[in-house]
Amino acid sequence: IRSASRMTDDTIGRSLFEQEPLVYPLVASSTFRLRSAQEGAVLSEDRAGDCGYMYSRWRNPTVAAAADVIRRLEEAAGTLLFPSGMAAITNTFLTTLKAGDHVVCQNQIVDGCE
What span, in angstroms and rounded, lies between the C-alpha atoms of 12 and 24? Predict the structure, then answer.
């Protein structure tokens, strides 16, 4: 287990708060206030980027904070978090398979989904 003490230089939360919170709040909002139509256009083009927040299905501060913590703890280049196991499986298939590939698996790969 890697020490969480290396996370003291964290900048999570600075875009939402003047000072960094000790406990990051859960952001339950689905949409965020925009300052201009131009800002909305930039955010629409950069859904997964670091420009800001517009719609929580594209990017959410709570999910971004969790992904950043996991990335740093694992010393990884990046982290992807998904809202469900089915979303994670679908992403895996869509990013690794190409036309004509086959997937061999059991009948039920996610509990409750047949």
Answer: 8
**CA angle centred on 23, ends 21 and 28, rounded to 5°:** 95
Q: What's residue 98's pLDDT?
A: 95
Average pLDDT over residues 8-23: 54
> What is the predicted pLDDT for the residue at 73?
93
What global pTM score does this model have?
A: 0.60
Whether residue 11 contacts residue 20, with contact meaning beta carbons closer than 8 Å, is answered with: yes
* Mean pLDDT across 101-107: 85
- What Rg, from alpha-carbon coordinates, does the chain have? 18
Rounded CA-CA distance 65/25 in Å is 10
**CB–CB of 45/35 below 8 Å?**
no
Model confidence at 6, in pLDDT bands (50, 70, 90)? very low
Which secondary structure element, helix H or strand E, spans residue 51, and what is its range? none
Name residue, tokens 């952001």.
27
Is 78 in a helix, a strand, or coil?
coil
